[in-house]
Amino acid sequence: MTQTYTISELAREFDVTPRAIRFYEDQGLLAPERAGRQRIYSARDRTRLKLTLRGKRLGFALQEIKDIIDMYESPRDTLPQLKKFLGKLAEHRNQLERQREDLEATLAELRVHEQECLRLLGKRKNAS
After folding, report:
1. What is the DSSP string of 51-87?
2. Distance CA 28, CA 62 (A)
3. Which of 29, 48, 79, 83 is the most exposed place for a label (fewest CB within 10 A)?
């Protein structure tokens, strides 16, 4: 018998709301079976949810996540799919590198302001 999960079990396991899981279903990332009104999630759905949440943490858009996950479910040696995946990875890496540069510049500015505040506070202490 294959392992199945309820929406509550997945929500608890991955620390997300059932509403978020239903949203991912609406976006085509998950496709649970139905038993009346109850959703029954398969091991495949669980894996897709796990990959979706990982992709979100990495900053991918939901459509990009869906494209990447869908690629995993088709033959991996398909040249166009591999090129598309490689392109997405490169785009995302470039975006993260730009964000890192922005963060480093902002942190440098903060350090300058902190040093200036400390200098001014030092003058006040000496004047008191």
Report:
1. HHHHHHHTT--HHHHHHHHHHHTS-TT-HHHHHHHHH
2. 10
3. 79
What's the pLDDT tens digit per position in 106-120? 999 999 999 999 999
∠83-87-92 over CA atoms, to 5°? Answer: 150
How many residues comprise the chain? 128
β-pairing, 33-35 with 4-5? unpaired
Q: How far apart are CA 44 and CA 16, in angstroms?
A: 18
Q: Report yes or no: 11 and 17 within 8 Å, Cβ to Cβ.
A: yes
pLDDT tens for residues 41-99? 999 999 999 999 998 988 889 998 898 888 777 665 677 777 877 888 898 899 989 99
- Rounded Cα–Cα distance for residues 18 and 7 (Å): 6
